[in-house]
Amino acid sequence: MKISLQHAVVSLTRALDFVGVDEISHGKRVALMALAIARECGWADGDCHDVLYAGMLHDCGVSRVQEHRQLTETLEWSGSQAHCLRGEEYLLDCPPLARFAPLVRWHHTRWESLQQGVPGLSASDTLMANLIFLADRCDVLLAPYLSASALNSDVLFEYPAIIERLAGLSGVLFAPELINALQRAAIRESFWLQCDPAYVNDVIVESLAADELEELGSKDTLALARLFARTVDAKSIYTLEHSTRVAILTRFLAQLDGMSGDALEEIEIAGLLHDIGKLRVAEEIVDKPGAISTAERAIIKRHSYDSTRILKMAFPGLPIADWGGMHHENLLGTGYPAHREARQIPREARLVAVADIFQALSQDRPYRGRLAVGEVMAELEQLTTAGRLDPEIVGIVRENQDRCYALATGVGQ
Ligand SMILES: [Fe+2]
Ligand SMILES: [Fe+2]
Ligand SMILES: [Fe+2]
């Protein structure tokens, strides 16, 4: 399995940008504005490249819509450090992206505080982290000019007010040299127009095109998938570790089912990222304790389609999107999002579906407590008798139920 790092990061951060729900692509805009300012400063290509990645990844610690709202509606928010720390932790555990951890850690810290020195943070990383902060806050002020489909051209003559506001914070929130570069970059219409929702993804792809493609091996690809799975799982206290544990269980079942080699890694990634589309669902719905309304159900139902699209983009040419994106299809043909018939649902997708249900039942949910292993099995048997789940796969689970339960819950492993 060979995956390009650039390609996977661009696609997976698209899911990260979903957290905005109504207003997506925040990360991409921050990346592009930061890159324009870095170039204006005359930074070396390698540093410009880092800024672009750090911009896309800067909010990888944010999966809750509420938190995203706080961060994008006020210029400074007292709770902003939590996602910086989470982001740093996730990135440090992902070798191909660990280099960006310090930039993400310090991207909401005032320049005047950074100036006092942060142990272990180099002068260039200090400036880069502050640049992400500046581009991030510039995007907050740009937001009123953005709609889902277009950038309001008013920004082209009203931008001086945005720049004046940020310049007023020079030396306090932001490094004076970065503010000066922003002032020079912002007079170009393209600085703003590249942020148009119609173009922002294309401009990102273009900006990365000059890079040499960095191929990831399976170990690094798994680490990358784990990073995004952690972001998804952090969305709700009820889904903590859900994706991680579904992946472990899926791999265990796949092995018993005779899969081997690269396919095992691929199915583990499918397990890790099957719910990545959930980043687009507000946590008020995910966490809701009682029955959900028809409208809320419709919102939840789009997540597996969103997962499919993201996975197709991130892992082109591999079956990961099908294996992960079909976890709510069933053998009766009444599942979603494609109402596939049994013959159109591959064995690997059936494995992910069984692991998903098994793990969800063995975890506390807002509307019920965790079930004991016997209760989980009774539910699975019932779904199998009803014709929804693959009886052979459920048979494998039955024979290994205690081990499956340990893997799904992390208890007694
Ligand atoms: Fe942030
Ligand atoms: Fe799901
Ligand atoms: Fe799930």
Description:
Helix content is 60%, strand content 1%. The protein folds into two domains: 3-209, Hypothetical protein af1432; 235-409, Orthogonal Bundle (Hypothetical protein af1432). The chain is elongated and about 70 Å long. Strands 1-2 form a two-stranded antiparallel sheet. The protein has 413 residues and is mainly alpha-helical. The two termini are 29 Å apart. The chain is built from 23 helices and two strands. Helix 2 (26-40) crosses helix 10 (176-185). The chain binds fe (ii) ion (FE2) (3 copies). One fe (ii) ion is lined by residues 275, 303-304, 327-328.
Based on helices, strands and strand pairing, what is the structural class?
mainly alpha
Strand content: under 5%
Q: What compounds sit in this structure?
A: fe (ii) ion
Gap between N and C termini: 29 Å
- Which CATH top level class of the largest domain fits? Mainly Alpha
Widest sheet: strand ordering: 1-2
Largest sheet: 2 strands, antiparallel
Q: Unreliable segments (pLDDT under 50, ≥5 consecutive)?
A: none
The share of residues in helices is 55-70%
Number of helices: 23
How many distinct domains?
2
CATH homologous superfamily caption of the largest domain: Hypothetical protein af1432
At CATH level 3, the topology of the largest domain is: Hypothetical protein af1432
Anisotropy-based shape:
elongated
Order of helices and strands: EHHHHHHHHHHHHEHHHHHHHHHHH
